[in-house]
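Hi again,

Forgot to attach this to my earlier email, sorry! This is the prediction with pyridoxal-5'-phosphate bound. I've pasted everything inline since the attachment limit keeps bouncing my files.
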Amino acid sequence: MQYVSTRAAASAASSSSQQFSDILLGGLAADGGLFLPTAYPQVTGAELDAWRQLSYADLAYEILKKFATDIPEADLRALTAKTYTKEVYKNARKGEKASQITPLRVLEEGANGTKLVLQALSNGPTLAFKDMAMQLLGNLFEYTLAKHNAQLNIFGATSGDTGSAAEYAMRGKKGIRVFMLSPHKKMSAFQTAQMFSLQDPNIFNIAIEGVFDDAQDMVKAVSNDLPFKAKQKIGTVNSINWARVVAQVVYYFRGYLSATTSNDQKVSFTVPSGNFGNICAGHIARMMGLPIDKLVAATNENDVLDEFFRTGVYRVRKSSETYHTSSPSMDISKASNFERFIYDLVGRDGDRTRALFQKVETHGGFDLSGKPGSDGDEFKLVAKYGFKSGKSTHEDRLNTIRDVADDYGIVIDTHTADGIKVARENLEPGVTMIVLETALAAKFNETILDALGEDAERPEGFENIEDLPQKFVVMPPDVEKMKAYIAANTGL
Ligand SMILES: *Cc1c(COP(=O)(O)O)cnc(C)c1O
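Structure tokens for the complex follow:
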């Protein structure tokens, strides 16, 4: 399996392609595009039938081996077996089986043949769906680095979910250190405790005196110093990482296969969306031949994606137009994985994709509505890819959390509430609608208290997390001090 950049010129496509292991540790392609396979591997009906019986780990192996063709199969099987265990994904709700890794729960079967189902993706160590991919990435990184006797220093900024998922995936891994910046005293007590209570010597928590953007700017400044970056072997694990996207493809297959008994049954997914990483994996599963009917992107007030799927206009937001909401992991100004879908939408034309995303830089967006003066008319093809969308507000989230507690007896988090709200608007008779649960409520307790007047239940082991000893340093937003700190701790 070869990979190509979404911005590759038609003439360069074959000569510049790379294999899975070549792009595993990297981020953007050299031309600024994102990596995709030169063609999506296809699944047959017979394969789907056989996969119905598989454990999650074995299913992950079957799917990954189609993409990671340069990793020996026995090694890949060992990696997926080590990653997807009931010990790692142990935080299942009462009545759900941890051994299923992403258990389904039927919320409602309507008299008119509609069906609403929740797929739990948040049973991993940090109680959010990012563990599904990040835990695999940790094991893949360790495996690849050991093979080349190399090391990697992951450097990033977080306002919550991504940083903790990365730290829990990389803790104790040989050859890897994590330097994670977060805004000092700006994360919730729970999120802070989750990260800072890690005592592993390869995890470095750095609280920056400033806001998230200051931390993010430091990461950019340090990463732009290419000699420093090379010498210190600095890498990232952000949401454009191809291996993360591929690992997420697996749970769409699991969801479909668990919700159906034969391959002619219809299933749609509603996905709480921010950077388009999660739902991009759904798109890839569909392109591989998984019989997904609709892919519904649910956004909050930051509705960049909803706007595109309603109008064909992609318009990124300025910081002043980006709202801090009660579903903060979806508070994005642009969707960093969206380029992968646009590449497919414009017929895998790297030149067009490059021009469109250069226009995002110069003009803040592009317009594929087909109206006079627009950049193209491919919006008319969106329905063919199954995409739909919807959005919700803070008020909607509070109401949905209340409704779900009353009607189905479970407490959901704010991001999942965005998903359920939009899913309910897109139910169709004869089609099972699966909503992906992207976090557990305990992570966003402040809003749960507002909605229900009581605390969200905490999974076992998290009861007193705020009281554990914390390991972190506080630093000013000073790039030179940051570099000195990294160099001192890598010894490179
Ligand atoms: C990251 C995140 C999202 C958004 O996922 P994308 O892949 O960026 O679209 C939604 N919900 C939660 C809880 C998250 O952590």
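The longest helix spans residues 130-148. DSSP finds 18 helices and 15 strands in the chain.

That should be everything now.

G.
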